[in-house]
Amino acid sequence: MFRGFVLRATYTYKVLISSLVLKQQILNHQSLPAMQYGLNGHKESQHHKYMRQALILAKTAYDDNEVPVGALIVKDNQIVGKGYNQTEMLNDPTAHAEMIAISSACSTLDSKYLTDCTLYVTLEPCPMCAGALVWSKIKRIVFGAMDPNAGSCGTLFNIAANKKLNSSAEVIHGIMETECSELLKKFFKERRL
Ligand SMILES: [Zn+2]
Fold first, then answer.
1. What is the pTM of this model?
2. How many A from CA of 109 to the centre of ligand 1?
3. Catalytic residues
4. Which residues on neighbouring strands pair with residue 171, listed in sequence order?
5. CA-based torsion, 137, 142, 143, 149: positive or negative
6. pLDDT tens string for the chain (193 positions)?
7. 193 CA to middle of ligand 1, Å?
8. What b-and-e string marks burial along 143-172, b requiring 16 or more CB atoms within 10 Å of the CB?
């Protein structure tokens, strides 16, 4: 029980520190241009630029032996929240990348709503995360790999764009899909050996 408390406190501290750093970056106007040159020298879209950064977060999860999923939230061309899957480290099934990114963004923006924000996540959100994203009133969800087992932004369920709920989000999928799914496949293949 004590270990759980310490881990949760550490997690909250990390989210707060991450938000403070993001706030400082926003104050310093460290926004990125709408288009930039990728590693291959070609111009890449805004969606690719942020998905590439979400993939770096997923790789951090991979290095920590967590299912490699990374997420970040952008408002006005600024990153306001980020997270990666930490369910093993925290012994917490709710510690998905998106949930952590939502908490981080709300803290950065001092708001319980993420109106006019876009979430970038390497794997299609599950029912829990899609539900939380609806409650956050986020404007747009961009994801990489589809999830046939739990995807709730169009694959298995469509919670995010369900007009019966009091809020819905625009969904864009398939951004860097191959890179995002290859990392997940690599992780699960290694676990099966
Ligand atoms: Zn989830």
1. 0.84
2. 22
3. 98
4. 141
5. positive
6. 556 666 666 667 666 666 677 776 665 555 444 444 444 455 568 999 999 999 999 999 999 999 999 999 999 999 999 999 999 999 999 999 999 999 999 999 999 999 999 999 999 999 999 999 999 999 999 999 999 999 999 999 999 989 899 899 999 999 999 999 999 999 999 988 6
7. 26
8. bbbbbeebbbbbbbbebbbeeeeebbbebe
Place of tokens 């009133």: 137
d(C-alpha 63, C-alpha 60), whole Å: 5
Query: From CA 175, how far away is CA 153, in angstroms rounded?
Result: 14
Task: For residue 91, report the distance from its CA to the centre of ligand 1, in Å.
Answer: 15
Reading the block at residue 193, the tokens are 């050996």
Going from the Cα of 128 to the center of ligand 1, the distance in angstroms, rounded, reads: 5
Q: How far is the CA of 142 from the centre of ligand 1 (A)?
A: 14
Q: Cα separation of 93 and 95, whole Å?
A: 6
